[in-house]
Amino acid sequence: MGDQSIVIFAHPIPLRAGPIRLEAFLIETENGSPILDNTLVGSLIPVALDDSAAAWIPPCCRMEDGVAGEDGITLEFAKTDSGNQLLQGANIVIQEPGEWLLELDVNANQSDLGRVQIPLTILEPLPPLQSHWPWLIPLPLAIGAFIFSQRRKRE
Fold first, then answer.
1. How many CA atoms lie within 13 A of 99 on its CB side?
2. Core-most of 88, 122, 139, 146, by most CB within 10 Å?
3. Nearest of 95, 106, 99, 96 to residue 8 by alpha carbon
4. Cα gap 152→16, rounded to integer Å
5. Same domain, residue pair 136 and 76
């Protein structure tokens, strides 16, 4: 892309079927300063999907399902989806694990800077218990602490 570089962040790592967050920003290669007046439009194109088993996808409230059509899944990057004004973010739910291709069309200062293609491997989602265990731990700990405190009071 000439004098510009694109920096992309993804969550979760490793990428798994289910909710995925992509964030990106454009910088000048020479000095590392951000290019603020830019737009990113992308698509996720399935290359080789793993259709061996239907994957369990965790529930997602406000995210669109990523059902791939002929042209893949369209990604609309927006600054409002990001915590700061440098990053542009896109949320997506990927339904199928496998090999995908992320294509980004980059425009800055009303000029087309080109297209970036990045291969992605999307793994199978974690089983429900393994993906939600951090939310299940506090209740047994609180009950155990309460029982311990009641027993200490009796002694």
1. 3
2. 122
3. 106
4. 45
5. no
d(CA 35, CA 32): 9
For residue range 84-129, list pLDDT tens digits in order: 778 888 888 888 888 999 998 888 777 777 888 999 998 888 777 7
Judgement on whether residues 104 and 133 belong to the same structural domain of the protein: no
Spatial contact of 3 and 106, defined as CB atoms under 8 Å apart: no
| Selection from 20, 30, 31, 23 nearest residue 7 by Cα | 23
| DSSP β-bridge partners for residue 99 | 48, 121
The total number of structural domains that make up the chain: 2
User: What are the Cα distances from residue 7, in Å, to 4, 29, 35, 97?
Assistant: 10, 11, 11, 24
Q: Is residue 43 predicted with pLDDT exceeding 60?
A: yes
Same domain, yes or no, for 143 and 110?
no
Q: Which two tokens stand for residue 119?
A: 């291969």
- The number of residues making up the chain comes to 155
Element (H, E) at 101: strand 98-108
pTM above 0.85, yes or no: no
Kindly state whether residues 149 and 131 are assigned to the same domain. yes
Q: How many CB atoms lie within 10 A of CB 102?
A: 20
pLDDT the model gives residue 86: 81
